[in-house]
Design goal:
The chain is α/β, with parallel strands linked by helices. The chain contains 9 helices and 10 strands. The strands form 2 sheets. Strands 1-2-3-4-5-6-7-10 form an 8-stranded parallel beta barrel, surrounded by 4 helices. The protein has a two-stranded antiparallel ribbon with strand order 8-9.
């Protein structure tokens, strides 16, 4: 097992103060940040879908011409019938951006379990060959637990379907449970560190260094060889929720990961 640090991306949603606003309209052009992100040492970008869909033609063209730096497309499409056109648009965006992976989430209705499973498989056939279909094991979805995720990945036996977990949102036993359940199907991490006493508040990874180092050790012991996105950073949902402040903290998180992995 190599201790080489994984590829690390910056999530464009991290810099976006409008990420959870009513209309979710982007406040900045990602293309104008690409050189700064590259110079800071990030290996690429996980692009929030609205930074592409809601951009003008010039910005979309600039993003498309930046390949292969936009390695992951962060989609919020759904897997019930009404999202058919959205899924088609996602597949088209992945192709135009030449992204190597696409993040997706399934829903939370137990009655739609079989529909989600089969629709994900059908959608996978629409994606460009070789695309990593990355299911985020997110709260309020049917794969929010290791048991639920294992059940899904048993249906998605094709290894183009891979899992995203949030290593710092779990204690050590729960993080081990994720890897015991999914093993090598976990190929991507969304990293965001939260304060110990107030889970709603984000902090720098270095502020909880022991927790982070313990998580790194667990993942390396399980043979993790995937990729990482710094998803959110200190300042999110505060009076300091500005791109400059968030970027400074994201760069500090990047440095910590590289130095401690």
């Amino acid at each position: 097992m190599s201790d080489q640090c994984p590829t690390i991306y910056l999530g464009s949603i991290l810099l976006e103060p409008n990420r959870w606003s009513e209309k979710r309209e982007p406040s900045y052009n990602v293309s104008e940040w690409i050189e700064r992100i590259r110079a800071a040492g990030f290996d690429g970008i996980e692009l929030w879908e609205n930074h592409y869909y809601m951009a003008d033609l010039a910005e979309r063209t600039a993003l498309e011409s930046s390949a292969p730096f936009i390695d992951i497309f962060n989609s919020y499409t759904g897997f019930s019938a009404e999202f058919g056109e959205s899924r088609r648009m996602t597949a088209e965006a992945v192709q135009k951006l030449q992204s190597k992976g696409v993040k997706f989430n399934i829903g939370n209705n137990p009655d739609d379990w079989d529909l989600y499973m089969e629709t994900v498989l059908d959608w996978g056939d629409e994606l460009p060959d070789g695309t990593r279909a990355l299911c985020e094991c997110h709260p309020d979805t049917l794969v929010e637990t290791p048991e639920g995720a294992a059940k899904a990945f048993a249906r998605w036996s094709d290894h183009r379907f891979e899992a995203i977990v949030h290593p710092f949102n779990n204690d050590e036993s729960k993080l081990k449970a994720w890897f015991e359940a999914l093993g090598s199907r976990i190929t991507h991490l969304h990293m965001q560190m939260r304060e110990e006493e107030n889970f709603e508040m984000l902090c720098r990874i270095e502020d909880r260094a022991e927790k982070a180092r313990n998580a790194f050790k667990i993942m390396k012991d399980f043979g993790f060889k995937g990729t990482i996105t710094v998803e959110f950073a200190k300042g999110t949902r505060t009076e300091n929720d500005t791109a400059e402040y968030l970027f400074e903290n994201a760069c500090a998180d990047l440095a910590f990961i590289r130095e401690n992995w």
